[in-house]
């Protein structure tokens, strides 16, 4: 079975009540139990009573459903893979249900360890490639000669030998994260397939499922132990002149999460390590499927249940999104504008900005979503700033950028205009598109944006439901 085939068409527990639906009532009265078809007055009276009871039930059900809808807000987080949807979901959780994040904290260790080991493995693989280049092939730079001499190679060989016990644990951590089934190796992320209990109303957190798994506990404890023994080796690798050269001169880029965890390895390797909020926001765990997270939101007009849908963003998963488009109040679309020099993992010819624009326009044109509010978050602003400061030229990747200055303010305005223009062209429902620049790892700034976005969504929701 393919991954997509396993994605439920609808969220269990979210289907409309069917016992006395209008559709079933119609068929009931017209064919089975039309009161007029009984000639005996006593039977007719009984049939009339039953029919009246059904009518009352239908009315009650409609009122119940309407008041439920008044108190429910459905929000979808959309965007390409690695745009920051799950990170935003955690920020929502932090804002409204920080106690649940507290409970989850220890469970995130497994992902932190897996991300860290993957970063180490990636560095070693890149060094392999580096050392395999002949002198003619080596990209000589103004930085001077490459430290790929025999002594550097021998030092790396020794570090690698010492790191093997740690690297060999990656498989068992990943297997626990994917429940040992259908794990698909992925270059950039840890793959997380849908599992039982993910689609719950209570907003069950996937990693917390692992709390009671003996195998997961064993794998995490083993990783913690080996990490404690190898932390100095990781640091030596990270500081090694060949690695330093590779990152600087060849501008090799590791995952953002990998870089962060490598720089924090000493803290992470402590025996009593518990992930900090920052760590939980930095982890990379690829979502597969659609995950519903529910939280109570106390806002203008009382208490509401917010149902936030976090989706997997790879191309192959996008067709599954539309099963969830019914009754959506708002869409929060994330576009990582730092990705102007990157291409899709599952389509290496498509620039990631181009993909984001196309995806947004197809969502704007979707009739099922015509009543949904649209919010666009131009995300990963921190990385965009760093890239521009280090001299990466936008026009090399996006020709239409032309000769504009390669600085942050010009680039940010260019991307904003670009997305707004695409929306204006395709949104036949003439909705307003609300735009914010975000760095999803910045808690304080993101919480301010969440408050403003919520206010916007709630105001429209109250107006809409007031008219119902
Ligand atoms: N530096 C930086 N990193 C970010 C930002 N937003 C998200 N990230 C990181 O980017 C990586 C991917 O973020 P996710 O939230 O997992 O992305 P996603 O959209 O859920 O991806 P899929 O589940 O594959 O669709 C994670 O390691 C995040 O910590 C940001 O604004 N700045
Ligand atoms: Mg995700």
Automatic annotation (TrEMBL):
It comes from the Eukaryota. Transmembrane segments: none annotated. Keywords: GTP-binding, Magnesium, Metal-binding, Nucleotide-binding, Transducer. SUPFAM superfamilies: P-loop containing nucleoside triphosphate hydrolases, Transducin (alpha subunit), insertion domain. Residues 1-23 are annotated as: Disordered. One of its GO terms (biological process) is adenylate cyclase-modulating G protein-coupled receptor signaling pathway. GO terms for molecular function: G protein-coupled receptor binding; G-protein beta/gamma-subunit complex binding; GTP binding; GTPase activity; metal ion binding. GO terms for cellular component: cytoplasm; heterotrimeric G-protein complex. Mg(2+) binds at residues 86, 287. PANTHER family: GTP-BINDING PROTEIN ALPHA SUBUNIT, GUANINE NUCLEOTIDE-BINDING PROTEIN SUBUNIT ALPHA HOMOLOG. This is Guanine nucleotide binding protein, alpha subunit. It comes from Mycena albidolilacea. The lineage of its organism: Eukaryota, Fungi, Dikarya, Basidiomycota, Agaricomycotina.
């Amino acid at each position: 079975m393919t991954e997509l085939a396993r994605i439920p068409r609808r969220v269990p527990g979210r289907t409309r009540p069917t016992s006395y639906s209008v559709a079933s009532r119609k068929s009931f009265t017209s064919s089975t139990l039309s009161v007029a078809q009984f000639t005996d007055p006593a039977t007719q009276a009984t049939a009339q009573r039953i029919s009246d009871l059904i009518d009352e039930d239908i009315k009650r059900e409609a009122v119940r459903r309407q008041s439920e809808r008044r108190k429910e807000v459905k929000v979808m987080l959309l965007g390409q893979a690695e745009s920051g949807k799950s990170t935003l979901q955690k920020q929502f959780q932090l804002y409204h249900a920080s106690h649940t994040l507290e409970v989850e904290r220890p469970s995130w260790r497994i992902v932190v360890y897996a991300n860290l080991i993957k970063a180490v493995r990636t560095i070693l693989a890149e060094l392999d490639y580096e050392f395999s280049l002949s002198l003619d092939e080596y990209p000589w730079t103004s930085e001077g000669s490459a430290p790929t001499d025999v002594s550097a190679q021998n030092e790396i060989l020794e570090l690698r030998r010492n790191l093997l016990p740690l690297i060999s644990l990656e498989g068992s951590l990943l297997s626990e994260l994917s429940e040992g089934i259908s794990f698909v190796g992925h270059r950039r992320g840890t793959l997380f397939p849908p599992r039982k209990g993910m689609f719950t109303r209570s907003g069950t957190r996937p990693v917390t499922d692992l709390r009671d798994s003996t195998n997961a506990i064993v794998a995490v404890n083993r990783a913690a132990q080996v990490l404690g023994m190898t932390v100095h080796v990781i640091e030596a690798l990270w500081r090694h002149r060949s690695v330093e050269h590779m990152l600087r001169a060849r501008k090799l880029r590791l995952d953002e999460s990998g870089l962060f965890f490598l720089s924090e390895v000493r803290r992470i390797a402590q025996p009593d390590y518990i992930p900090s909020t920052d760590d939980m926001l930095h982890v990379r765990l690829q979502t597969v499927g659609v995950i519903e997270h529910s939280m109570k939101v106390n806002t203008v007009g009382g208490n509401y249940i917010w149902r936030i849908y976090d989706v997997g963003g790879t191309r192959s998963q996008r067709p599954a999104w539309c099963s969830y488009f019914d009754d959506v109040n708002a869409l929060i679309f994330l576009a990582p504008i730092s990705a102007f020099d990157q291409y899709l993992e599952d389509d290496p010819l498509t620039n990631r900005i181009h993909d984001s624009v196309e995806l947004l326009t197809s969502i704007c044109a979707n009739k099922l979503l015509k009543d949904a509010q649209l919010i666009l978050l131009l995300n990963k602003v921190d990385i965009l700033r760093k890239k521009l400061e280090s001299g990466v030229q936008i026009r090399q990747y996006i020709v239409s950028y032309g000769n504009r200055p390669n600085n942050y303010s010009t680039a940010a305005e260019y991307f904003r205009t670009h997305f707004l223009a695409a929306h204006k062209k395709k949104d036949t429902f003439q909705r307003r598109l609300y735009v914010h620049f975000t760095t999803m790892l910045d808690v304080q700034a993101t919480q301010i944006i969440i408050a403003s976005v919520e206010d916007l969504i709630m105001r429209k929701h109250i107006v809409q439901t007031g008219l119902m």
